[in-house]
Amino acid sequence: MKKIIILLLLNISQFAFSQNIREIDSVSIIMCNSLVNSGNIKNDTLRISSLYQEQLNPYLKTLESSKAEKFGELLYYRLQRNCVEFRKLLDRLEPPKESVTRKTIKPISKLTKKQIENFKKQVNFKYFEASGDITLSIMENGKWIDNFADKTYSKLDYNWISNTEFELIFIESNNETRSGFSIAGDKLVYNVISKEADYYLVSVNIPGQKEFEEFKLYIN
What we know:
- By secondary structure, the chain is an alpha+beta fold.
- The chain has helices at 2-9, 21-36, 44-60, 68-82, 84-93, 113-121, 176-181, and strands at residues 101-103, 124-128, 134-140, 143-147, 153-160, 165-173, 187-195, 199-205, 212-219.
- A hairpin with a 5-residue loop joins strand 2 (124-128) and strand 3.
- Helix 1 packs across helix 4 (68-82), helix 2 crosses helix 3 and helix 2 (21-36) packs across helix 4 (68-82).
- The longest helix is centred in the N-terminal third of the chain and has 17 residues, at 44-60.
């Protein structure tokens, strides 16, 4: 599905990309607004196609020659980060293997002081990607490292910002999805909501957005 969407967004090998990430983000925000306003189109594939025709294509015509495919890939990932509506659309087109709950109100943590202390002592976690692949995570000495099923990795700083919340600050990754989704310094805020039998229920929020995505962070 990802490749199909990129092709829908692209189809523009004659055009070029010479823009930095800020310009890509600017385009993604414009496209996000257009996507939100296209709610009258009920077919999601048609909504993406319309997005390309009305927003991306006119923009690309203003560029000099360069790497269009790379532009499409980066735009695809930054759209996911910058646009709640686009993330919801992708979930409908290709539902995550493990269900995801999205809320517009910040979840309230139910953890006791002892439970959060135990969480902070944990080092090894795992969670499911949308594809169903398992990612192994190490949280230790102020660093968070994700090890993906394809043998790639991501490195992030982490620090606690409240009793139950911590932020991850992106450093680097050799994983295509993560390196496209985040740039150095990008933050995600996690809130540990509850402790279940073999996992913690955790929410994640992109600062500045009013969406909180709940997922299961398993003890490994």
